[in-house]
Write a structure and sequence with these properties.
265 residues
């Protein structure tokens, strides 16, 4: 019994030694495996942090770009606002000017209305005076002058003609009549001679003399203001009138004219 017990104790000791050796051998392996797992975990965390940092940097860059764009848009909006304010200020000046002009135009319209009320009767009186003057004047270009007066009367009845145009036409007619007194003119027309309508050449020297001569040069006459009719010259001025007519028609050089002149009573 005493011999077996040491053997069992020796076996137990050997077993314990083997277990301890196994534990000693297994402990570094366990520590190595644990350390490797920790490293992998740390690497995973680092990679995850790096990915998160990259994503955050991307968001920061995007936000920075958006901020720059917003800043540029804001500055552009400020410039546009300043331009609009300046434009509105200019428009206000134009509007104020137009309002003043509208007030001036209204005043002018009122003045024109008042002028029309006074000028219209005056224009009618001017036409009547011109008509009376033509009737009492030496009867040269009678049809033309009467037609001019008739046209003025028709013009006064037209609604599409403004008062300024009507007044201008009347003044033109007066100027034409005034010009007759300073000019010499020869023209052809028809008149009754001894109960017969004949074509004659008229010679007008201002308003001093109005004479006629037949185209054959055989008969001549002059306007007598006192009698209000043409009188026969009985051939006294036939040759002189032929020469005067040629001068008036610019068919001969200017020269002294001899024409009969009647003096009204």
């Amino acid at each position: 019994m005493s011999a077996v017990i040491p053997t069992i104790g020796a076996l137990m000791g050997e077993v314990m030694r083997n277990i301890c050796w196994a534990l000693a051998m297994a402990l570094p392996l366990t520590l190595h495996v644990s350390h490797a797992q920790n490293l992998n975990s740390i690497v995973d965390v680092a990679q995850s942090a790096t990915a998160d940092g990259a994503a955050s940097q991307s968001r920061i860059n995007r936000l920075d770009d958006e901020t720059d764009q917003l800043t540029r848009d804001y500055r552009a909006a400020l410039k546009q606002l300043a331009a609009l304010r300046e434009y509105n200020a200019q428009l206000e000046k134009l509007i104020d000017g137009q309002k003043k002009e509208m007030v001036s135009i209204r005043r002018q319209i009122e003045d024109v209305t008042n002028v029309d009320r006074t000028i219209m009767p005056l224009m009618f009186r001017m036409i009547d005076a011109l008509d009376q003057f033509v009737k009492l004047d030496v009867p040269f270009l009678a049809d033309e002058r009467r037609a001019r007066v008739a046209n003025l009367r028709a013009l006064m009845d037209r609604s599409d003609a403004n008062p300024a145009e009507k007044y201008r036409k009347i003044l033109e007619a007066y100027e034409i009549e005034n010009e007759y007194g300073r000019t010499i003119e020869a023209y052809e027309g028809e008149m009754e001679i001894n109960g017969e309508i004949r074509t004659v050449s008229f010679l007008r020297i201002g308003r001093i003399a109005l004479v006629y001569q037949t185209l054959d040069g055989e008969e001549s006459g002059a306007w007598d203001t006192a009698q209000g009719e043409f009188i026969d010259l009985d051939g006294d001025f036939d040759s002189e009138l032929r020469s005067a007519l040629r001068i008036a028609k610019q068919q001969a050089a200017p020269d002294l004219m001899v024409v009969p002149v009647t003096v009204g009573q």
